[in-house]
Automatic annotation (TrEMBL):
Principal cellular location given in the protein's record: membrane
Topology term for the membrane: Multi-pass membrane protein
Superkingdom in the source lineage: Eukaryota
Family to which this protein belongs: Belongs to the nematode receptor-like protein sre family.
Alphabetized UniProt keyword annotations: Membrane, Receptor, Transmembrane, Transmembrane helix
Cellular location(s): Membrane
Annotated transmembrane regions: 27-48, 60-81, 139-163, 172-194, 200-220, 262-285, 291-313
InterPro entries: 7TM_GPCR_serpentine_rcpt_Sre
Organism: Caenorhabditis elegans
Protein's UniProt name: Serpentine Receptor, class E (Epsilon)
Pfam families with a match to the protein in the record: Sre (PF03125)
GO cellular component: membrane
Keyword Transmembrane helix: yes
GO biological process: sensory perception of chemical stimulus
Length: 365
């Protein structure tokens, strides 16, 4: 939705298709609003659970854990945006700064356009500041989510560069630097998108570019770490890398498995989101505008509902860790039979132990 501000003719891009949709407060649409509320509660639960487990279970380096939690905590941003925008979306509050007063009691529908005559004109932004502020927060959150893979790819690149001692040293400056640069980029890009300095095509291009860089870095890093892992499994090359380097390489490979699950979930979100946007843009299902708009808002607001479970269930130590029910879990574990470790797992453990003691022997010699 594009607004144009008074005499300055400044354009404002707001990520929605319908506002002042009065039917959302009536049956049966009210049920969808209640369903969305429950989805927000579930998303908040999974965000807290994922943040807690990622910090509690030291599966990866602390830098990666901190970056993951920072990205998850950003869900609070969309909660603030939803609280600010919901009254305007449902028509509970009306836009008071409209130049055309007759539109105050009208459901407003509009998609991206370059034609000023089709834009919604407002006198200024201060009159409906909560509404426009929520639009900026939504754009910032959407851009932050789209850059998740670049953040992880850069951190894993550092893990590959400092392969021999990355696990031994904290190097917390890496996480701080990545967060600062990422947030500055997101704030600037969200501001430019909010002021509609770019057309829809260039918005997609700017959003896609960091992900192409991220995929390139991740593929190269994965290839490099798999190569090191294979070398360590070859007894003829035991002395090429230290045990710490081998551990870090295996950690990186494990991280790539997690990223693959998150990538699949994000691709699914993007496909669903773009399909909804095109359906709204070409007005394919005019009778379902309200439903499609809710779906588009869900893609923006509830992406954490898909990504948090993807993170939790892609790593064994995350999946097996208890949350809010430790006592019950411990009681069950005490009465259960110890699982049998497979022969393949035993052989792998024996191999790792032998490599470890070989390296210790070389060190003492």
């Amino acid at each position: 939705m594009i607004f144009i501000v008074g005499s300055s003719r400044q354009r404002i891009c707001y990520p929605t298709y319908i506002i002042q949709n009065f039917e959302l407060l009536k049956f049966p649409w009210l049920l969808l609003e209640i369903s969305e509320l429950f989805l927000f509660i579930i998303t908040l639960f999974y965000s807290i659970k994922c943040s807690y487990i990622v910090l509690k279970v030291r599966t990866f380096h602390m830098n990666l854990s901190v970056l993951t939690v920072v990205l998850i905590v950003q869900f609070s941003e969309i909660l603030v945006a939803k609280v600010c925008s919901w009254p305007y979306e449902t028509g509970f509050w009306r836009l008071r700064g409209l130049s055309n007063a007759s539109l105050t009691n009208t459901t407003l529908k509009q998609w991206l356009t370059d034609d000023e005559s089709e834009m919604i004109e407002v006198i200024d932004l201060s009159t409906d500041f909560p509404f426009f502020f929520s639009g900026y927060l939504k754009l910032h959150y959407a851009i932050s989510v789209s850059n998740i893979f670049l953040v992880i790819a850069v951190e894993r690149s550092f893990a590959c560069y400092f392969l021999n001692d990355y696990e031994k040293k904290s190097r917390f400056w890496i996480a701080v630097a990545i967060v600062l640069v990422d947030q500055m980029f997101n704030l600037v890009v969200a501001y430019l998108f909010f002021l509609f300095y770019f057309s829809f095509f260039y918005m997609i291009l700017i959003t896609a570019a960091p992900n192409l860089v991220a995929i390139t870095l991740l593929l190269y890093s994965r290839h490099y770490n798999l190569k090191i892992t294979r070398i360590h499994e070859d007894y003829a090359h035991q002395s090429n890398y230290t045990l710490a380097a081998r551990f870090q390489a295996k950690e990186n490979v494990k991280c790539f498995n997690m990223i693959r699950m998150v990538l699949i979930s994000l691709i699914g979100i993007l496909i669903f989101g773009f399909t909804t946007c095109f359906a709204l843009y070409f007005n394919i299902f005019p009778q379902a505008d309200s439903l499609l708009n809710l779906c588009m808002q869900a893609v923006i607001n509830l992406s954490a509902l898909v990504m948090c479970p993807a993170i939790l269930y892609s790593v064994d130590s995350f999946r097996n860790h208890t949350f809010l029910c430790k006592k019950l879990k411990k009681k069950r574990e005490n009465t259960s039979i110890t699982p049998h470790v497979s022969t393949v797992k035993n052989l792998e453990l024996m191999k790792e132990t032998e490599i470890h003691f070989n390296q210790l022997t070389n060190t003492w010699i």
